[in-house]
Design a protein that fits this description.
single chain, 8-stranded mixed sheet, Methane Monooxygenase Hydroxylase, Chain G, domain 1
């Protein structure tokens, strides 16, 4: 491979998160949706600190350790803090503008000092009936440790003064029990909202009535903990027990960030930081009086329709006909579903059909992140109740979903479903379902392979694909993957599927090399990759080789992007974009021209070392010519997007991809319209 350098994946991720701030600042984005983008940004940043920053902090304790990109972990941490502080200032400016824009729509987010007498009576009543029974203040003593504080919570740090003496207390704001946003009585078609912490502030004197104080004030803060799990892959101990222990430890893990109201008195801040064991090298950020903006993702539904994205009702798939069996439709022709443009309930209906079809004998499925009240799980339980042999490969180590998956595993086992709790040493991230049916004395397999989770809730906001096929070449190899789950030594040979950690890396590199050879022979050569993250050094190096050889390389990467796309010469440059819009781009699609054969895969895997080497992932080839055209059309629309696509350059400037100032094209809306017209044609 030619010499190349790797960008810090953490800094590239922060650049991705900044694109959410861009969306929140766009006037053309509906107003309430802009608020929600601030919530998504905040939620993402919390997880970034829990995972990425936590890992870097551990690595920074190892002397002279250099990261893949050649930097010291401590230097990257410094750059992260500088970037986050800068983004936080922009965040606050955007929020201030949104408050003004909301006011123009007669929507007001007010605090405890701005209540009318009538609103004050309402808040007092709400506090006494709903809030006061749920708050338990903690008095802070200088010689007494603090209780363990939750990293998913916000706290009010309370200061009571009398003469020269001060008393301190903490109150956890009960946002897990009560709504963060309280809608107040209003007049003249106005809508007034107060945050839950400001309800508490309004009644602070009532809470601490037994203290004699002259003044009482409160200041918000939150903290973030290291969320990494220390897993032991020793198969002698149950994964369930390991994870249960890890979940118990998570609340006591290392602190990695402290954000606070910048108006908090210095002496109180110093006391808090000392008790929490923060020091000057830790990430401590002063900001506004509002934190945990992630709750703004659930901002109440108020206001007029123009404040929201117009509803896009999912299209039925044109190859699925009412009254016709799903499996019969798949037997005729491969079907590709695009979520959320087409309904995920097609998949639930398929499972429901399989659960009662007397000829279906077996259903196997992988499960990573499931919906809270998963219809998918209930369909599988129903299949087991109807005498089908049902197996679920349940990945317990789906981060932040571990407890849910333990509970699903217990329920499935209770209902007679065979549950396989992942694979020792590997995460099962593939999205596979295999339905076996007896037809004319033969067993026929129907396979479903997707890019996203079997989750009906996330399928409404994540852009993903799922292929349904009865092609025996594909279904036979999907069956081999399930054989590996049953017996981890049965790896199998794959001629169609790309399966990590066994064949995906090798075959991806092989296909890149083939394009390079085509280019060197003077033939047409193209590579197009759409994924969420591109950080694997070897794949990046091969893509650089391809660009230098004259292969047209196009990259569409939503998140972490460690490749430097701008070469020293124009021919070395790699056209790269990232899309942030109404739906979260989540699908992974790999395209290789292959001398005109056009190899196209949809995949569960991003191009990260963990996905290629330490996870069970599956990429499936698309053979149907019509589906190939559909996917090419989807990719082409995204390349021509000039409203939501950002150019990924060496400087991480996030400039909109204007495409020569062509007419406005928003790829997500355009693709929705195309699927609608295709449906009409059928």
């Amino acid at each position: 491979m030619t010499n190349f350098k790797i960008r810090s994946k953490e800094l590239s991720w922060l650049s991705f998160n900044e694109r959410l701030l861009q969306e929140a600042s766009k006037k053309e984005v509906p107003l309430i949706e802009r608020l929600k983008f601030l919530g998504i940004y905040s939620n993402n940043l919390d997880e970034f600190f829990r995972i990425r920053v936590a890992i870097l902090r551990r690595l920074a304790t190892i002397d002279n350790l250099l990261l893949t990109e050649g930097e010291l972990p401590a230097d990257v941490l410094t750059q992260i803090e500088q970037t986050v502080v800068s983004q936080s200032k922009w965040f606050e400016r955007i929020y201030s503008q949104l408050l003004k824009d909301l006011a123009e729509e007669d929507i007001f987010i007010i605090n405890e000092t701005q209540l009318t007498p009538e609103q004050g009576e309402y808040v007092t009543s709400f506090f006494k009936e709903e809030v006061r029974p749920r708050i338990m203040p903690v008095i802070i003593k200088k010689n007494q440790p603090l209780p363990t504080l939750n990293d998913d919570a916000i706290y009010l740090a309370v200061v009571m003064t009398k003469s020269k003496k001060e008393e301190y207390a903490l109150i956890e704001v009960p946002t897990t029990i009560l709504p963060r946003f309280v809608i107040l009585p209003s007049e003249n078609d106005e809508r007034h909202i107060i945050l839950l912490e400001d309800v508490i502030r309004f009644e602070l004197k009532d809470i601490f009535y037994m203290f004699s104080f002259k003044t009482i004030n409160s200041f918000i803060f939150k903290l973030t903990r290291d969320a990494e799990l220390d897993l032991d892959d020793d198969v002698a101990e149950s994964y369930v027990k390991i994870l249960s222990k890890s979940l118990e430890k998570r609340g006591n893990s290392e602190l990695v960030r402290f954000v606070h109201d910048k108006e908090i008195p210095d002496n109180f801040l110093t006391l808090l930081l000392k008790k929490l064991n923060f020091d000057k090298d830790d990430v401590i950020i002063g900001g506004s009086r509002i934190h945990n903006f992630k709750d703004f993702m659930g901002f109440p539904s108020i206001g007029k329709k123009h404040l929201y994205y117009p509803p896009n009702t999912p299209h039925p798939h044109p190859a699925i006909h009412p009254g016709e069996a799903y499996l019969a439709s798949i037997a005729k022709k491969d079907i590709l579903l695009h979520f959320p443009y087409q309904s995920f309930y097609h998949f639930i209906d398929l499972l429901r059909e399989a659960s009662i079809d007397p000829k279906v004998t077996e259903i196997k499925m992988t499960a990573y992140r499931m919906a809270k009240n998963s219809n998918v799980i209930h369909a599988l339980i129903n299949a087991a109740r109807n005498g089908k042999k049902v197996t679920v490969v349940l990945e317990l180590r789906a981060r932040f979903n571990e407890q849910d998956n333990i509970q699903w595993g217990n329920l499935l086992t209770k209902e007679g479903v065979k549950v396989i709790l992942g694979v020792p040493g590997l995460k099962v991230h593939s999205k596979l379902c295999l339905i076996t049916r007896k037809e004319e004395k033969e067993l026929v397999n129907y396979a479903c392979i997707g890019t996203g989770n079997f989750n009906e809730l996330t399928a409404k906001v994540f852009s993903d694909q799922m292929l349904w096929t009865a092609n025996p070449s594909i279904s036979k190899e999907v069956s081999k993957v399930f054989d590996f789950f049953f017996k981890n030594y049965k790896i199998g040979r794959y001629h169609h599927l790309l399966v990590s950690p066994f064949t995906m890396r090798y075959k991806m590199i092989q296909m890149i090399r083939q394009e390079i050879q085509m280019a060197k022979n003077g033939e047409k050569a193209e590579i197009s990759i759409k994924c969420n993250n591109l950080v694997d050094p070897e794949i990046i190096g091969r893509l650089h080789d391809a660009a230098k050889a004259g292969v047209e390389v196009r990259l569409n990467v939503r998140g972490m992007f460690a490749l430097f796309p701008d070469g020293t010469e124009e021919k070395d440059s790699i056209r790269s974009i990232g899309i942030i819009d109404r739906y979260l781009e989540h699908s992974r699609i790999f395209y290789f021209y292959c001398g005109g054969k056009e190899n196209i895969y949809i995949s569960s895997a991003d191009l990260m070392s963990r996905n290629l080497d330490r996870r069970v992932e599956v990429s499936v080839p698309v053979y149907d010519p019509e589906i190939k055209k559909e996917l090419k059309k989807f990719l082409d629309l995204q390349w021509r997007d000039n409203t939501s696509a950002r150019i990924l350059d060496n400087q991480l400037t996030n400039q909109i991809n204007h495409c020569g100032e062509a007419p406005r094209l928003t790829s997500q809306l355009a693709f929705y319209d195309i699927l609608q017209s295709d449906r009409a044609d059928h």
